[in-house]
Amino acid sequence: MTRERSPGKPEDRKPGPGAGGAGEVSLSLVVPVFNEQDNIGPLYTGLSEVLRKLGRNYEIIFVDDGSGDDTFRLVRRLHRDDPHVRVVKLRRNFGQTPAMSAGIDVARGDVVITMDGDLQNDPADIPRLLDKMAEGYDVVSGWRARRQDTFLTRILPSRIANWIIGVITGVRIHDYGCTLKAYRAGMLKSVHLYAEMHRFIPAMVTIAGAGIEELVVKHHPRKYGQSKYGMSRIGRVLLDLITVKLLIRFSPNPAHWFGALSAPFWLLGLFFGIWSIRLTLTVGTVYFPIVIPALCFLMFFSAAYLVLLGLLSELVVKTGSYNIAQVAGR
């Protein structure tokens, strides 16, 4: 993905008091924004009031997802005035997952918190997320138990989707769609995000053995602007869900999966082999149909290919697991 930072990179400026330098930030807040000009000011004010009371070095990363209004101008001004604020600007509107991924990539904190930029998430819940994480969890997921949205178009589809995702992935949480979540950076940065994958992070980090807990958070009705999400994303979410399911079930032992896939080919190869031998004994080689031994060879070759592919996948996954362990243990 091509990213363009705002003029005056945060890395080029001297951090102010309590800002922390590179490697010294302990908390990163990633906020993707798209056409949220009316929400930027109140959101920044609320975040600053809460984060300053935490007594830890922090950064607020606004990711402008190709906004067409004054959103980028406003966050760039905040960046100039406050060394805690960093800005990432995408060249066009890529969507929430790529925007979130861009912010996560540049986050320097040991803990990364993601939240929406529409004022529906409450900054006052951030200390509660951190307190829950201090109990030993790797991911603390917000749960909008009293969601302030329309029931038929937002709440009901979300509940159905959360139930389906929980059943398919085996990771049962109430609110996959809530952006307000806290992650340990090592776990989060080991997950490759694309398409609509941001909502599946709690399920995907279970591959690395992450501990997950839920926390009921506040949810406010939208005051300014319009929602950027609709029913059109249902198809993409379902496709991504299939991908996540395969990743969760496939990653631990890919050789077993490929071995199971190769079993029908071994059986078909054996069947055509026995058929070939039987024909040779009954009709001889003069009238022997060449297609049957060819099929026998093709089936055995396909089975062997799948087994070798499984062994190769096992090597790749084990190498990746070793890298994840290194990252998580830093």
Verbal overview:
There is one protein chain. The longest helix is centred in the C-terminal third of the chain and has 38 residues, at 291-328. This protein has 330 residues and is an alpha/beta fold. The relative contact order is 0.11. Helix content is 48%, strand content 12%. It folds into two domains: 3-250, Spore Coat Polysaccharide Biosynthesis Protein SpsA, Chain A, CATH 3.90.550.10; 254-328.
Layout of helices and strands:
Layout (H helix, E strand, L loop, with lengths): L2 E3 L21 E7 L3 H16 L5 E7 L6 H11 L3 E6 L5 H11 L4 E4 L11 H8 L5 E5 L7 H19 L11 E4 H4 L12 H4 L7 E5 L17 H17 L3 H30 L7 H38 L2
Parallel strand pairs: 2-3, 2-5, 3-4, 6-8
Antiparallel strand pairs: 1-4, 5-7, 6-7
Give a brief outline of the structure.
By secondary structure, this protein is of the alpha/beta class.
Number of strands: 8
Largest sheet: 8 strands, mixed
Low-confidence stretches: 1-23, 321-330
The radius of gyration is 26 Å
End-to-end separation: 27 Å
Total domain units: 2
Oligomer: single chain
- Helicity range: 40-55%
In CATH, the architecture of the largest domain is Alpha-Beta Complex
Question: Percent of residues in beta strands?
Answer: 5-15%
Count up the helices: 10
Strand order of the largest sheet: 1-4-3-2-5-7-6-8
Mean pLDDT: 79
Return the CATH topology of the largest domain.
Answer: Spore Coat Polysaccharide Biosynthesis Protein SpsA, Chain A
CATH superfamily of the largest domain: Spore Coat Polysaccharide Biosynthesis Protein SpsA, Chain A
Question: What is the SS-derived class?
Answer: alpha/beta
CATH class of the largest domain: Alpha Beta
